[in-house]
Amino acid sequence: MSEKRTSLYDEHVGLGAKIVPFAGWLMPVQYSSIVEEHQTVRNNVGIFDISHMGQFIVDGAAGREWLNRMLTNNVENLAPGAGQYTFLLNENGGIIDDLIVYRIASETFLLVVNAARADDDFAWLQDHLEVGHVSGLPDRTDRKWDVCATMLTSRSTNFGAVAIQGPRTAALFDALFGKEIELPARNHIVDVPFGTTNVSVARTGYTGEDGIEVFFPASDAVKFWRAALERGKPLGIKPCGLGARDTLRLEMCYPLNGSDLSPERNPIEAGLGFFVDLTKPDFVGHDALLKTKQSGPAEKLVPFRMTKKGPPPRPHYAVFRNGEQIGEVTSGTLSPSLNWGIGMAYVSSAHAKIGAEIDIEIRGQKFPGTVEKKPLYRKPAS
């Protein structure tokens, strides 16, 4: 199967990006260098192509109830224009995907899902919609809804998106849309005019910096990308690739689906129980998560920092404590901001305390590290 290309693929090539296969797509991993792009986001503003991510629309009078049974967070808490981070789980509580859901109208929702999971997510949701009930829940006479009153569609092919991230995001927003347009509040989404069309702007991101994600018809992708780069020149903007996106998110301890999150892991183990509302009557995976919550997870996802210079940690490296293997690294890199090896790992809960001393086996040699508090990177006091 050949990799797909976003509407901005030719722009990336024209800017000299190094292109790599990622989640079924050909995407830029870097333009200049990962470190340079990383520091651009930390200090100025960077722009990422995120058009490969899936975009689903749920519409209809019964859509909100149905979504609340499919997702872990409480969709009922969303006012129009608001969004929340949430999970799509299997019956065992394992993470199919982590995503953001926005309530873009009274009875209309936008789901932004990971590129690698988009097709499977849609199939899973479609299967649970067509049967008119949610499998994996206790038998209940009130769990059905009017299937005809709920519509699930994918607009992934026809829409694109970019993430604009960095402390100068607000200034670029003004340059793109005018100072008379107000920047949306954190985790909110608004439609704003851009040229002869409208784009949707969400105040969110994956880097720990101020940021927005902008969604638009694929036909407008090149126009918006070029405008952002041109109007961002005085602000020091640079196009950024997947490499910087990964180092930025790891410094903030934001999990990566497929590495830190998987169908074999649940949100409680991943330390993300805040995004699970166990007081909801039911949702797929509810009972499994409740058991984990009550008994405590056997393993926990923890951030760590190396305490000795050496090769950076990488996924699947073994984690030791006093010579005994206690876990495995899921993400690791050399932090451009901290200049230390950092990562995340699942370790036995008994050794998951902040400050615990661990060893990471790298190329047959053990290097010391410590379990740290989230996030690993904190902005210096101004």
Distance between the termini: 50 Å
Q: Count of DSSP helices?
A: 8
Number of strands: 20
Per CATH, the architecture of the largest domain is: 2-Layer Sandwich
Average of per-residue pLDDT values: 94
CATH topology of the largest domain: Gyrase A, domain 2
Element-level helix/strand string: EHEEHEEHEEEHEEHEEEHEHHEEEEEE
- Given helix and strand content, the structural type is alpha+beta
Q: Using the alpha-carbon principal axes, give the shape.
A: globular
Output the radius of gyration. 21 Å
Q: Number of folding domains?
A: 3
CATH class of the largest domain, named Alpha Beta
Trace the largest sheet across and list its strands.
11-12-13-10-4-14
Account of the protein in words:
The chain is α+β, with helices and mostly antiparallel strands. It folds into 3 domains: 4-52 and 157-250, Probable tRNA modification gtpase trme, domain 1 (Gyrase A, domain 2), CATH 3.30.1360; 54-154, Alpha-Beta Plaits, CATH 3.30.70; 298-372, Beta Barrel (Elongation Factor Tu (Ef-tu), domain 3), CATH 2.40.30.110. 20% of the residues lie in helices and 32% in strands. Helix 2 (34-43) crosses helix 7 (242-251). It is globular.
Secondary-structure blueprint:
Layout: E1 4-5, H1 9-14, E2 18-22, E3 25-30, H2 34-43, E4 46-49, E5 54-59, H3 63-70, E6 83-89, E7 95-105, E8 108-113, H4 118-130, E9 151-154, E10 159-165, H5 169-177, E11 189-194, E12 197-202, E13 211-217, H6 221-231, E14 238-240, H7 242-251, H8 286-295, E15 299-306, E16 318-321, E17 324-334, E18 341-348, E19 357-362, E20 365-371
Parallel strand pairs: 1-3, 4-14
Antiparallel strand pairs: 2-3, 4-10, 5-8, 5-9, 6-7, 7-8, 10-13, 11-12, 12-13, 15-18, 15-20, 16-17, 16-19, 17-18, 19-20
